[in-house]
């Protein structure tokens, strides 16, 4: 294996890891705050990309890509908030909320996928890159858009971490996740913060979709594969830990790139599941999770 | 004394879980600057009463007024904003947060936030042990430290009245004395206090007046100055038998 190959694997792994970090952090945030998995997280990503396409593509409104980014994220935040209100909030007091919301969010996923197909059709689309051209990174040539993903993801992850660590709302969100009743007793509006969490997570999904929408091709199921990866990563990294989720994102990204090189793109995804099972056999709490929650 | 002057009025309150009303129309009041105890065996509605007052569970019937204002239409958050603070029993707070972070967070409402520095100073002076451990996570605290932090968190909320639910649950006599001194100091500023306790000596050392609760109802009200003693109260509950 030459240095060039190694560099290519590493760079492609970092790109994948960055995409996964953006996706999985939103999923992880919702899990640690509300204790549910949002299976519609992937389709929110798809929706963001399609809305951005409509606003910015010549076949749509033909506006500047920046407008597409803004409208795409705003629209998905709206859908995220609506989703929380309609299919999550009614079950907050139900002790089976985790299972119920698996069903309700899966239902939203299917509904939105079909809706996207109906509105935009099944024909492949691609977003205009925010950053056009190509750049050289660690000796490998990648598109400037991929470079943008590599740069944006860590910045956003650090910003998200700082927000949760130090801001009043961010601390409130962590408090709600750790002990909702104790949070209520100090005057935290628990259901308001649930909405904020859902909105934040939806915004991250939309942004991922928009960033990736000029690298990959848009289809109504564009977000399905990233969702599955993000689910694996959240479990793999140790449920509820943002740091663990981000670390696991890059680990899985690089591993996936290496597996694709070694055994090919056909078997690489299933090998990652095998790896997840092996890790969970020895560390049921995930790689970076704590033993007791 | 007119009702409007009272810190807290609970009138014929009914509340409970599922189909069952644990509180069968309970009425109590706490006067301005008054320290009131709530004593009774486990499972007789003391905690339910505090939960209903602070809207952790809904109030089904009756009325609760704080400083004369009915709390019926308010949320748990709005009740905290008004300064009626409930320090819950055996509260594990936020396991992964540090002590200092927890105290800062507790000054969450606008009003509490504006008094944050002053209140933090007060709490750390009142419980020097919390100051020593300010970087420690809540889950690593001992029972006594956690109780101190719970009360500290209550104080950070800028209370106009405190409701403490069994602050000495499971603590050693030495720690109980420490907490009693702290609670005494807090209420010496004429902070109205509603104290739920099972340790009769502890309640009697701190309150002006006390309610005896039995099966979700007040069965007796005792003024401490009238000098009812420990044995008599135990007799009332346990019919003269040895009370553990």
From TrEMBL, chain A:
Pfam families: BPD_transp_2. GO terms for biological process: amino acid transport. CDD domains: TM_PBP1_LivH_like (cd06582). Keywords: Amino-acid transport, Cell membrane, Membrane, Transmembrane, Transmembrane helix, Transport. It is a multi-pass membrane protein. One of its GO terms (molecular function) is transmembrane transporter activity. GO terms for cellular component: plasma membrane. Coiled coil: none annotated. The chain crosses the membrane at residues 6-24, 36-55, 61-83, 95-112, 147-164, 185-210, 230-252, 259-282. It is found in: Cell membrane. Belongs to the binding-protein-dependent transport system permease family. LivHM subfamily. This is Branched-chain amino acid ABC transporter permease. It comes from Microbaculum marinum.
Automatic annotation (TrEMBL), chain B:
One of its GO terms (biological process) is L-amino acid transport. InterPro entries: AAA+_ATPase, ABC_transporter-like_ATP-bd, ABC_transporter-like_CS, BCAA_Transport_ATP-bd_LivF, P-loop_NTPase. Residues 8-240 form the ABC transporter domain. SUPFAM superfamilies: P-loop containing nucleoside triphosphate hydrolases. SMART domains: AAA (SM00382). GO terms for molecular function: ATP binding; ATP hydrolysis activity; branched-chain amino acid transmembrane transporter activity. Gene3D superfamilies: P-loop containing nucleotide triphosphate hydrolases. Pfam families: ABC_tran. Keywords: Amino-acid transport, ATP-binding, Nucleotide-binding, Transport. PANTHER family: HIGH-AFFINITY BRANCHED-CHAIN AMINO ACID TRANSPORT ATP-BINDING PROTEIN LIVF. Belongs to the ABC transporter superfamily. This is ABC transporter ATP-binding protein. It comes from Microbaculum marinum.
């Amino acid at each position: 294996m030459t240095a060039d190959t190694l560099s290519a694997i590493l760079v492609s792994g970092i790109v994948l890891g960055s995409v996964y970090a953006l996706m999985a952090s939103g999923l992880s945030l919702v899990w640690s705050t509300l204790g549910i998995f949002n299976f519609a997280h992937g389709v929110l990503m798809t929706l963001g990309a399609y809305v951005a396409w409509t606003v910015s593509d010549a076949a749509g409104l033909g506006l500047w890509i920046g407008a597409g980014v803004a409208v795409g994220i705003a629209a998905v935040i709206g859908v995220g908030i609506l989703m929380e209100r309609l299919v999550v909030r009614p079950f907050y007091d139900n002790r089976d909320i985790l299972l119920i919301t698996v069903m309700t969010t899966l239902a939203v996923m299917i509904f939105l996928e079909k809706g996207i197909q109906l509105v935009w059709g099944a024909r492949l689309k691609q977003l205009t890159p925010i950053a056009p051209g190509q750049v050289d990174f660690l000796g490998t040539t990648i598109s400037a858009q991929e470079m943008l993903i590599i740069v944006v993801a860590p910045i956003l992850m650090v910003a998200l971490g700082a927000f949760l660590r130090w801001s009043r709302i961010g601390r409130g969100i962590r408090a709600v996740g750790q002990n909702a009743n104790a949070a209520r007793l100090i005057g935290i509006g628990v259901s308001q913060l649930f909405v904020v969490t859902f909105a934040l997570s939806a915004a991250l999904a939309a942004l991922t979709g928009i960033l990736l929408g000029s690298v990959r091709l848009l289809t109504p199921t564009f977000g399905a594969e990233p969702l599955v990866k993000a689910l694996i990563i959240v479990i793999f990294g140790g449920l509820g830990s943002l740091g663990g989720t981000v670390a696991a994102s890059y680990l899985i990204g690089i591993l996936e790139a290496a597996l694709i090189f070694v055994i090919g793109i056909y078997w690489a995804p299933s090998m990652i599941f095998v790896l997840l099972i092996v890790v969970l056999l020895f560390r049921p709490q995930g790689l970076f999770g704590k033993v007791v929650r | 004394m007119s009702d409007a002057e009272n810190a807290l009025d609970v009138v014929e309150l009914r509340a409970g879980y599922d189909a069952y009303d644990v509180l069968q129309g309970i009425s109590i009041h706490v006067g301005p600057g008054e320290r009131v105890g709530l004593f009774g065996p486990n499972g007789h509605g003391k905690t339910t009463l505090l939960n209903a007052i602070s809207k952790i569970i809904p109030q089904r019937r009756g009325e609760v007024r704080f400083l004369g204002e009915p709390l019926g239409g308010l949320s748990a958050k709005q009740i905290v904003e008004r300064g009626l603070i409930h320090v819950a029993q055996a509260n594990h707070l936020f396991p992964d947060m540090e002590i200092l972070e927890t105290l800062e967070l507790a000054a969450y409402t606008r009003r509490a936030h504006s008094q944050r520095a002053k209140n933090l100073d007060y709490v750390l002076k009142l419980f020097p042990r919390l100051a020593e451990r300010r970087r420690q996570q809540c889950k690593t605290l001992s029972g006594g430290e956690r109780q101190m932090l719970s009360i500290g968190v209550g104080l950070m909320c800028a209370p106009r009245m405190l409701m403490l639910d069994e602050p000495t649950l499971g603590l050693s006599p030495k720690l109980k004395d420490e907490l009693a001194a702290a609670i005494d100091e807090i209420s010496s500023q004429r902070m109205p206090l509603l104290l739920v306790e099972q340790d009769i000596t502890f309640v009697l050392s701190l309150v002006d007046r006390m309610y005896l609760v039995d099966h979700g109802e007040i069965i007796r009200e005792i003024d401490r100055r009238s000098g009812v003693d420990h044995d008599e109260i135990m007799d009332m509950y346990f019919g003269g038998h040895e009370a553990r």
